[in-house]
Specification:
The complex is a heterodimer of chains A (456) and B (341). Chain A is an alpha+beta fold and 456 residues long. Helices cover 51% and strands 21% of the residues of chain A. In chain A, helix 7 (348-365) runs antiparallel to helix 8. Chain B has helices at residues 5-14, 16-19, 44-57, 70-78, 91-99, 109-113, 150-159, 161-164, 177-189, 192-202, 211-219, 231-239, 271-285, 324-338, and strands spanning 24-28, 35-40, 62-67, 85-88, 103-104, 119-120, 124-137, 168-171, 206-208, 225-230, 246-249, 255-265, 309-311. The two termini of chain B are 31 Å apart. Helices cover 40% and strands 21% of the residues of chain B. In chain B, helix 7 packs parallel to helix 10. The chains are: A alpha+beta (456), B alpha/beta (341).
């Protein structure tokens, strides 16, 4: 699987990027608006000042007179500590003020305020000019009042607001990033939950996932369930095939064995007898393998839909021991049975199958003239059926490997076997919520295989 | 303003120093070569302690101290006379110098400690707050009620013209920058000013250039009353005892408080030393105890809280009465009231 990075991180980064962009944008906007507002405030104050002065204009004895009102100047101190310049001209003649103050680029018409920016006395200034026509004697004289102010106050206000806006933008960005991370985590939670649910499942659990999932994940869930369904079907089909094949093989094998026995009995040639015995043994082994394959398929099939009934493990042990006693007797193996009632809830057929495989193994690997001990007891709420033999033991390899399909112990050369026995037993026990315990007896050599099941 | 361009150029040609009307001048030689040239409206006897205190801190510095009227000081700086520090009681003229670009910036931890109302653009710095008061002669006022408002003062003057005929002193606002500032601010703030001026005008008032002379004349009994005298000078002189012959009076209805300001002219040759001197003056201006300095600090209990006293604001409005048209109009009205022929 190739990784293409984390969705959560990508989502967080993307959202943070959007937040950064928005923060920057809002900062720039606030900046622009603050500048505009401050400039407009200054314009309004300048206009008010110029208008106030223009209102004092009057004609006296044929001359234009005016009086600079105190308020017209004091209001200019409102914005900040800005330098103030002014000029009043009547027609071409200068009445009062700063003679070299620049003229407004387009002269104001009657009653209108004209704004302009210029350079004066080494600083940028903002000017507001108002014009009024005064009748001085016989002729109308246009009088222009210009009030000008430096722009430090405006800059100070703007930079103050800009700093505040920058601070707020950074705060907004940080909050947005935290919230993005949270949002990404929250929206990815169902996905993680589904992944965890799948990961928690046992190796053979192919039931469909039945979980509440967001709409976006529904297709994934459906596909996943369909895949598992197909996989289950395919496994079942192959198990069915194996069972069918084993079944088909077993019947002709029985015929071959019967014919070989007949031939063995009717021949006197020792060499031929020897050959026939070998044939019989091989047929037995094949039949056994086929039986085990069938058992395995049965286990797989029945474990899927387990029927649970109270079953006494001791009963099963006794019945199985009875069934295998003749086989043991052939090798002069004595089976010692020591049982106490141990009721478990489960499928009697499967449990018997499991126990038979374990006991069969024990007999198979035990040398002649030894004892196999079977003990059934309850301990710590678990029913246990232990089978102890005096054979070569389970070897040094990891015990768990022995329950894998077709895996056999290292010290089994010379003994025929399919490697399915312990696998079947282990599968059955796992389906019942128990497990197979592989180990050594407390004293002497040999193997100790214990079926452990929750007692009921 | 700039209505005398030609005169200005001529003044330049004639030489700056010769154009300056110096009232007093003294050098305080230091041990080093560095010099600090101060032009001020404060009399030497008032300001000498400050100069000596500064020289004690900087003994290497030679201090050159020139006393001139506020109008002369203003004109000199405007015409490009070279000084490192200009100290003036005429706030309006100082403000105009700063506004028109004749001052340079100064910033230090001391100027930062100064409240906003006591500085402007880091160009001008206030270091004293001095109220306008009335000084009266107790001998001449014997038996008369002591007025506490302008209204009462008008009443007293009207009822006893014999006592006050030719015995009222006040600033000649045409000559004194400070007098003009006090008069315009008072005219703006209370309508009683013009009524009082009318009444005074009928009593043949004596016009002065400076507070010091008015107080001397009250002490000598030549004047019964001096109106709009600088409180600091009055207090200073009274401290040197007149044997209870004079009394300082604050009007309860309204009183101006002037801020004495300092600025470093833009062409100063030793702005660093000037900055240090300003820092020292601000330090003294911010002191909380009166101590033994001739000039009062910025925050004075009693002035701040007394009803009617208002500080003249350091702001563009100060330039209104400096406008030649406004000045002409105000002076003609003042002359009509005061100098009745």
């Amino acid at each position: 699987m190739t990784g293409t990075g984390s969705i959560g991180r990508k989502l967080t980064l993307l959202l943070a990027g959007v937040a950064a962009l928005l923060s920057l944008l809002s900062w720039a906007m606030v900046n622009g608006l603050a500048k505009q507002a401050a400039e407009r405030t200054q314009d309004n104050v300048l206009a008010a000042s110029a208008t106030t002065i223009a209102e004092t204009l009057r004609s006296e004895q044929g001359e234009v007179r005016l009086e600079l009102p105190y308020s017209a100047f004091s209001m200019l101190g409102a914005i900040g500590e800005d330098r103030v310049f002014y000029r009043v001209t009547a027609g071409e003649q200068m009445l009062t003020g700063y003679e070299d103050l620049p003229l407004p680029s387009d002269p104001p018409s009657q009653g209108q305020v004209v704004f302009d920016t210029a350079q004066f006395s080494g600083e940028a200034i903002r000017m507001a000019s108002v014009s009024r026509v005064i009748f001085a004697g016989v002729q109308a004289v246009p009088v222009t009042v210009t009030m000008a102010q430096t722009r430090n106050g405006v800059s100070a206000i703007t930079s103050d607001l800009s700093q505040l806006a920058a601070f707020l933008s950074v705060m907004f960005f940080l909050v947005a990033v935290a919230m993005s991370a949270f949002a990404a985590q929250t929206s990815l939670k169902p996905l993680n939950e589904i992944a965890a649910a799948v990961a928690r499942r046992g190796p053979s659990d192919l039931r469909p996932l039945r979980r509440e999932a967001p709409t976006e994940l529904a297709p994934l869930m459906t596909s996943l369930n369909r895949l598992m369904d197909r996989l289950g079907q395919s496994i079942r089909r192959s198990e069915d095939f194996i069972a069918e094949a084993a079944h088909r093989v077993r019947t002709p094998l029985a015929t071959v064995r019967a014919q070989a026995e007949v031939a063995l009995r009717t021949t006197d040639d020792d060499a031929e007898k020897q050959r026939l015995r070998r044939i019989i043994r091989a047929v037995d082994e094949s039949s056994r393998s086929a039986g085990q394959l069938l058992d395995h398929a049965t286990v797989a099939y029945r474990a899927e839909d387990l029927s649970r009934h109270p079953t006494d493990l001791a009963d099963i042990a006794r019945k199985t021991v009875d069934g295998l006693e003749p086989t043991a007797a052939m090798k002069d193996i004595y089976i010692k049975l020591d049982t106490a009632p141990a009721t478990v809830s489960g499928d009697a057929v499967l449990l018997e199958n499991a126990f038979r495989n374990v006991l069969d193994n024990a007999i198979k690997y035990s040398p002649e003239d030894t004892t196999v001990t079977v003990r059934v007891f309850v301990e710590n709420g678990y029913a246990r059926a232990a089978v102890v033999d005096e054979g070569p033991g389970l070897g040094d390899g990891p015990a768990e490997n022995l329950t894998e399909r077709f895996r056999r112990g290292r010290n089994t050369e010379g003994i025929v076997g399919s490697g399915l026995g312990l696998t079947i037993a282990s599968d059955v026990l796992r389906a019942h919520g128990g497990h197979l315990d592989l180990g050594q007896p407390t004293k002497g050599k040999g193997a100790c295989v214990t079926l452990v099941l929750p007692s009921s | 303003m700039r209505y005398a361009c030609l005169a200005l150029i001529l003044t330049f040609l004639a030489g700056v120093s010769s154009a300056l009307e110096v009232e007093d001048h003294r050098r305080y030689p230091g041990t080093g070569n560095e010099e600090l040239h101060v032009i001020s409206t404060a009399d030497l006897e008032v300001f000498e302690p400050y100069l000596l205190a500064f020289q004690a801190a900087r003994p290497d510095l030679t201090i050159d101290y020139t006393v001139a009227s506020s109008a002369e000081l203003h004109r000199a700086i405007r015409n490009g006379a070279v000084f490192d520090l200009a100290l003036s009681s005429a706030m309006d003229l100082q403000f105009q110098l700063a506004n028109d670009g004749y001052a340079q910036r100064h910033q230090s931890d001391r100027t930062l400690a100064l409240p906003n109302w006591a500085k402007w653009r880091d160009l001008i710095f206030a270091f004293t707050a001095e109220p306008a008061v009335m000084v009266l002669s107790t001998e001449r006022f014997a038996g008369l009620p002591v007025p506490t408002t302008r209204q009462e003062l008008v009443g007293v003057l009207r009822q006893h013209p014999d006592v006050f005929e030719g015995a009222i002193g006040t600033y000649d606002v045409r000559e004194s920058g400070l007098g003009y500032l006090f008069a315009t601010q008072e005219a703006r703030s209370t309508d009683a000013y013009w009524r009082l001026s009318e009444v005074m005008g009928r009593l043949d008032p004596q016009l002065y250039c400076c507070s010091g002379q008015m107080i001397d004349d009250v002490t000598e009994g030549k004047l019964a009353l001096a109106y709009n005298v600088l409180g600091s000078y009055a207090a200073d002189r009274l401290a040197r005892a007149s044997g209870g012959k004079v009394q300082v009076l604050s009007m309860q209805d309204f009183g101006n408080v002037m801020l004495r300001t300092a600025l470093i002219p833009s062409n100063a040759t030793n702005p660093d030393a000037a900055g240090l001197m300003i820092d020292m003056l601000i330090d003294l201006g911010l002191r909380s105890t009166p101590e033994n300095w001739p000039l009062p600090p910025l925050n004075q209990v009693g002035i701040d809280h007394a009803a009617g006293f208002s500080q003249i604001r350091l702001g563009p409005a100060l330039m209104v009465y400096l406008d030649p048209l406004n000045r002409r109009a105000f002076l003609s009205e003042w002359e009509n009231a005061m100098v009745q022929k």
